[in-house]
Amino acid sequence: MEKAHYTVHRQALWILCFHVVCSISIVTEYISTTQTTMDVNVIDENHHQHEVGSKWSPLFEDGPGPDNVTARIGSTVQLNCKIQLLYDKTVTWVHRKSDDIQLLTVGRQVHSSDQRISLSFRYPNNWRLQIVYITDRDDGVYECQVATHPPTTKKTYLRVDVPTVRMSVTGTGDVTRGGSDVFYKTGSTLEIVCKVIHAGSNNGSKVSWFRGRQTISSGITERANNDSSCTTVVSTLKIKHVQKKHSGNYTCLVGSSSASAAVSIHILNGDQPAAVHDGNSGPLVCCVAGWWLLTLCCLVLSS
């Protein structure tokens, strides 16, 4: 009797174990199926997150643009490009002007041969393009592009303000004018005034002075006048007791040759202004001709 009872309990235990094993198998299969489904969903999301127009595609934090930027010649400009959800995509900067297209940067590498251009990345997501010493040739459209398919692009229109530059010459000594040439006597005071007129407010553009290719840094005073419509900068170069060595071409320049003015200064030492002009070989020719005439007369008289 006891043996039969033991046999029944043993069979019940085997049946219980069988059901437990089956239940574990079913649960394991469910978990595996669920994980596979999740993995597929993740892969699917990763696959679609860079497609333009999807909720995971890169986007510009400040909006798609376009932006308008005005810069003054000789200044520094920074063009912002803040990108969210960039992931592993590459950012490039391109400059378009008329039919000319120039590749400036790819990722953090600069591809432009112009050393004024650099990528000034600002953490965490601003792929900022920087241009120093702006010139009029920097005018045009700048595109910040993300390498999606098709490319995600934001445009910035850069307008370069080219100021009006005027030059005048005054002095305390005797001055003779002749076109773009001005003549001073030795010992006079040379004073050249360069007037620069900018549209809008002043942003620090510098007036530079040159005699030929030599930079002038002394004897210069400057004042600025701002109003609602324009900024006027008056830069004055003053040299007392001028000598012959002060002769030359004087230029005032703001950023580039497109914003400059020049005058040719001649310092006289009791000579007439015409004598210092290039090509005035008349006096020399007369002396040579007179010498030959005197020699000819001597030959005739001796014969």
From TrEMBL:
<dbReference type="InterPro" id="IPR036179">
    <property type="entry name" value="Ig-like_dom_sf"/>
</dbReference>
<dbReference type="Pfam" id="PF07679">
    <property type="entry name" value="I-set"/>
</dbReference>
<feature type="transmembrane region" description="Helical">
    <location>
        <begin position="12"/>
        <end position="31"/>
    </location>
</feature>
<dbReference type="InterPro" id="IPR037448">
    <property type="entry name" value="Zig-8"/>
</dbReference>
<dbReference type="GO" id="GO:0032589">
    <property type="term" value="C:neuron projection membrane"/>
</dbReference>
<feature type="domain" description="Ig-like">
    <location>
        <begin position="163"/>
        <end position="264"/>
    </location>
</feature>
<dbReference type="InterPro" id="IPR003598">
    <property type="entry name" value="Ig_sub2"/>
</dbReference>
<dbReference type="InterPro" id="IPR007110">
    <property type="entry name" value="Ig-like_dom"/>
</dbReference>
<keyword id="KW-0812">Transmembrane</keyword>
<keyword id="KW-0472">Membrane</keyword>
<dbReference type="InterPro" id="IPR013783">
    <property type="entry name" value="Ig-like_fold"/>
</dbReference>
<feature type="domain" description="Ig-like">
    <location>
        <begin position="58"/>
        <end position="161"/>
    </location>
</feature>
<dbReference type="InterPro" id="IPR003599">
    <property type="entry name" value="Ig_sub"/>
</dbReference>
<dbReference type="Pfam" id="PF13927">
    <property type="entry name" value="Ig_3"/>
</dbReference>
<keyword id="KW-1133">Transmembrane helix</keyword>
<dbReference type="GO" id="GO:0050808">
    <property type="term" value="P:synapse organization"/>
</dbReference>
<dbReference type="InterPro" id="IPR013098">
    <property type="entry name" value="Ig_I-set"/>
</dbReference>
<protein>
    <submittedName>
        <fullName>Contactin-4-like</fullName>
    </submittedName>
</protein>
